[in-house]
Amino acid sequence: MNPDALATLHAHLLTALATPPTETRRLFHGRGRCWPGLEQLTVDWLQGVVLVALFKEPEAAHLDALKQLLVQFEWAQSGAHTVALQHRYLPQSTTEWLVGDAIDELTITEGGLRYLIDLGKKQNSGLFLDMRYGRNWVRERAKGLQVLNLFAYTCGFSVAAIEGGAEHVVNLDMARGALSRGRDNHRLNGHDLSRVTFLGHDLFKSWAKVIHSGPYDLVIIDPPSFQKGSFLLTKDYQRVLRRLPDLLTPQGTVLACMNDPAFGEDFLIDSVTREAPGLRFVERLENPPEFPDIDRQSGLKALVFRQG
User: Fold this and answer.
1) Which is nearest to 151 in space by CA: 129, 125, 182?
2) Cα–Cα distance between 223 and 263 in angstroms, integer?
């Protein structure tokens, strides 16, 4: 993060905020490795709040220079009132509030839908912005469907599905706190919670509950790449895929997602072919343009498969 890199960041922010986004968006995505020296930095626009995340500790002088840039930037011209710097490389992902007062919770919008996120308390705020096109895809196709949302987190896919007219959505995640936030998100959007089920269970110990609520027209699989004690991508994704024939309707669809830069889309395609041979690959969803990457296989992979 040398002076040239910071000058690039400054120029990028000026361009991105010349016409500020009306909804939540990523302003700068250094992790796509398109800008040397900024590979470990991202900037998100949270509608008046700017969240800057550092994923690797920079040299002390470079960190000071970054803070100086962020404090001196003319945020007010874009409508921003708060700037937070999150140190994602620290165990507690410590957040510094460089401009404005600390904010614990914030309601943001995406596609006209509202989501409640956390700031300064957790590593992730509650909505993964690179999955915007995935949520749009679900919303556009959900009408009348029975949907299963595995590894649901705060239920962004569920909110999109119900908004799109899904008959019912079953959300499963072992983090009950995240599911509670999912309920909040549905309430924010005026959704009928009788059409939404929340299962706070370990998937691999709860197949009977999941199967009993099926079959499903659409199964969404969006697991973490690694979660200590509960999920390992190279072992556990296959355990999910081989259950798909028991979960899907005869013409059911699967949206299988993966965000590990070490594995390309072939990992998922080959795994589905091996574990659920009745499914055929249909398409890979594009990622939003604000998430450029020098290697298409390193970014988010959201793949559609269909039975029959």
Assistant:
1) 182
2) 14
Give the span between the Cα atoms of 267 and 235, in whole angstroms.
12
DSSP string covering 233-245, please? HHHHHHHHHTTHH
| Helix or strand holding residue 273 (H, E) | helix 265-275
Task: Report how far residue 243's alpha carbon sits from residue 118's, in angstroms, rounded to the nearest whole number.
Answer: 34
- The pair of three-digit structure tokens given for residue 149, joined into one six-digit string: 């949302």
How many Å apart are CA 126 and CA 163, to the nearest integer?
Answer: 19
Both structure tokens of 292: 């450029």
Going by CATH, does the domain composed of 3-118 fall within 3.30.750.80? Answer: yes
| Per-10-residue mean pLDDT, the chain, length 308 | 91 95 96 95 97 95 96 93 96 94 95 95 89 98 98 97 98 95 97 97 91 95 73 88 95 96 94 96 97 94 94
Cα separation of 21 and 34, whole Å? Answer: 22
CATH no., domain 129-307 = 3.40.50.150
Domain map of the chain by residue range?
3-118, 129-307
Q: What type of residue sits at position 269?
A: I
Amino acid (1-letter code) at residue 273: T
Bridge partners, residue 221, by sequence: 150, 256
0.70 surpassed by pTM: yes
